[in-house]
Design a protein that fits this description.
With about 120 residues, the chain is mostly helical. The chain has six helices and two strands, in the order H-E-H-H-E-H-H-H.
Length: about 120
């Protein structure tokens, strides 16, 4: 999956499209790479960050994410433990906010975790 993701990102960038990496997702990836001590992968993540646009978690993203989280809970869809910060809902909120801010541009979430995200 990592090689496929890398190849996809290169293709997207070469085609002139914009890639955005929410800072919260960078954190999620980086903390695990740090835990595992995989310096080479951390270096590659740094190189990726130099080529793409970061997206900060702002007030609108958090408002949308809290709505998504509550909606999922009411429907009985748990994407994370009730006490955990639900990164999946924040990612979905990032996508919605990005689409709102760029109405004429297609917004795509690149993930292998489709199960948690498909409802949003």
């Amino acid at each position: 999956p990592a090689r496929e993701c890398n190849d996809w990102a290169v293709t997207v960038l070469q085609a002139g499209h914009r890639l955005v990496l929410p800072r919260i997702i960078d954190y999620e990836i980086r903390r695990e790479l740090n835990r595992l001590g995989i310096e080479r992968s951390l270096d590659r993540l740094d190189m990726l960050n130099a080529q793409i646009d970061p997206m900060e978690v702002d007030e609108r993203v958090l408002l949308v994410a809290s709505h998504f989280w509550a909606q999922a809970r009411r429907k009985g869809i748990a994407t994370a433990d009730r006490q955990h910060l639900d990164i999946d809902m924040i990612l979905c909120a990032h996508a919605l906010v990005t689409a709102e801010r760029n109405p004429f541009v297609e917004t795509v979430i690149a993930t292998t975790n489709v199960r948690h995200l498909r409802n949003f």
